[in-house]
Amino acid sequence: MDLFHSVILGIVQGITEFLPISSTGHLILAEKILNLGQGEFLKSFDIIIQLGSILAVVVLYWRQLFTRWEIMKRILVAFIPTGILGLAFYKIVKAYLLGSEAVVLWSLLLGGALLIIFELWHKEKPEAHEDVASISYGKAATIGLFQSVAMIPGVSRSAATILGGLLLGLKRRTIVEFSFLLAVPTMLAATGLDLIKSVGQFSLQQWDFLAVGFAVSFIVALVAIKFLLNFIKKYTFIPFGLYRIAVAVLFYLYIIN
User: Fold this and answer.
1) Which of 19, 67, 162, 203 places its Cα 20 to 30 Å from the Cα of 233?
2) What's the pTM value of the predicted model, to 2 decimals?
3) Which of 235, 190, 194, 144 is closest to 44 using CA atoms?
4) Is the pLDDT of residue 77 over 70?
């Protein structure tokens, strides 16, 4: 791995973190194309550079995060299921799922089909929740359960939370913004846990790679967040579903050839 790889992976992370296409899945596939292998540092790199994307949320949504306690309470409630399940399955996910191209491709394929089917079926009701602060605590916890499914690489944390919120009767923009905000404690916890377990194993050069990936993912995520907010004003998530299926099929053909 070198600084060029860090920049490329930072761009991939920044673009894909908040779109319903799986940042972790895309990082794993990008690393395969770049022939980077599947070492322990690379697994930690994939987790830690997500902090750059999360910083973009903090910069854009600092008022909701730090001045609206009703919103923060709901974010914390939604985080509880993810935190508990994340601690319980951390070792299994990192040892057996993170880095698995087969898991990523199946998740992208099935998740893409699910997105398309859901959007063709789903009709937003006029009484759907418009304000994040009005989400019930029960619904917030349920959204957290949906998010937990994204521990499987390729599922997409964003897609899981957005579909969960739409099923529970939230407006599209409301659940998209709630998904942004929920990413903050989720990714902070995931990164903190990995740093505690791995920080002593990084070399000075590897810290440089992490810093570059972090900075690039932050800048790119700022653009990606604004893009998604504009996108959902006019379109459904069907294009993302089609994209996921196309990536899974094309990458499968790439592997077998």
Assistant:
1) 67
2) 0.86
3) 194
4) yes
